[in-house]
Amino acid sequence: MKNIVLALSCLLLIHCNKSGVAEHSVKADLFEVISEDEPISPVAPPNAVSEKLAPDKGYETLSSVSKKTDTLSKKIIKNGDMKIQVGDIKKSQSQVNAILKSNNAYIQKEDFQNTDRSENLNLTVRVPHKNFDVLVNSFSDGVGSVLSKNISSDDMTEEYTDISIKLANKKIYLEKYRDMLKSASTTKDMLEIQEKIRGLEDEMDIAEGRLRFIDDRVNYSTLYISLYKEKVRSSATSKIGFGSRFIDSLTEGWNFFVGFLLGVVSLWPFFLLVPVVIFLWKKWKSRKAKP
């Protein structure tokens, strides 16, 4: 009897262990199913369209662009102006044209002034950056007497790099907005995205225009040249002396008098009004004097 009870106890213990293991196994499997089938809670939509942009990829690209722009060559703009006194404007202009041609330069603007005292030929010259110094030295040596010379250099590298990085960043976000526009579900989102695209495109046009301007000024330096010829008045032609000055003074005095007289004559309507004003004033005064 004792053996039978012991055997039944062993069988009961083994059955309980198997049931526990089976129950634990079922619970584990059920937990795994629940975990796999459990729906993911939806992410709240951003309040603004700009929040939909994923910054991580953009910043990584921007970082790479920044590294590329660090290797940009120096953006140096050279400018200068020279005033040269010459003996013959036409001859000097021919010399200038020959020098410009040999240095692959060209005249952007030309202005000629001829006064009683001097002749002035003002030129705005554009020359390749590498030929700027050679051109300046050529004008200093063979054209005439240099009265003044000013040369300046502006380093635009920092501004150019900054604009390039911002432009690259705007291009990244522009592509993101265009992708968002394709998947926009509401009219409001479409209009908002289109407005941001237009704003980015305008900013990019301005930035690209500034970069083109800097590149143009870097590739071609600007030199302002003034050819100056002073007119010498000889005594035979001008008769500079007391008599000539006296006659000039009389002429200027007469011209001043004529101008003054004409100015007075031009006021004739006011002179016609003076008698009327005096008459009305006397009439008003006589009425006031009567009791």
From TrEMBL:
Pfam family, one: DUF4349
Lineage top rank: taxon: Bacteria
Residue spans crossing the bilayer: 254-281
Presence of the UniProt keyword Transmembrane helix in the record: yes
Keywords attached to this entry: Coiled coil, Membrane, Transmembrane, Transmembrane helix
Coiled coil segments of this chain: 174-217
Domain DUF4349: 74-281
Full protein name: DUF4349 domain-containing protein
